[in-house]
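Please check the following.

. . .
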Amino acid sequence: MNPPSVGPRDAEPRSTHGAGAGAIVIAAVLDVVLVIAFALTGRSSHAEALDLVGLWGTAWPFLAGAALGWVAIRAWRAPFAVWPTGVVVWAASVVFGMILRALTGQGTAFAFIVVATLTLALLLIGWRAIARLALRLRRAKARTAASDRTETTVGTAASDRTDTAAGVASEDPTP
């Protein structure tokens, strides 16, 4: 029997393993919707037709690139992670998207590459950064609330013990 391998892919934090199906679907749908929004915005800013065929023609190379990124990084393991998931999905969407556009005779002007790179970074990495921040804030708020409840309970119990030891009557007025 071979010992388990330990490498960079195996060194992920436990909390990222086994992301729930709901989180995976949400992340995948957000990526798809944002890539389509990118394509839609680009088409509308260049006064191109906003029909489904035209939209598909613009979006599919970037969607294919993002899908390749999902598979390459196994994004389902940590779909909301900025690094490495978000960065790899973004880079793959741009690199493979541009390659596919070039292979199919679509434009790859330098200005478009720059705009696509920056916009897709903002969208595909940005939503993950916002989600991570929201999760951190939510966890911090929960920890603070739990800490406050613990301090109140401990403080009340300590006060009761001190009062009892000092011979002070309890709050119960019954004789």
About this structure: The two ends are 74 Å apart (CA to CA).
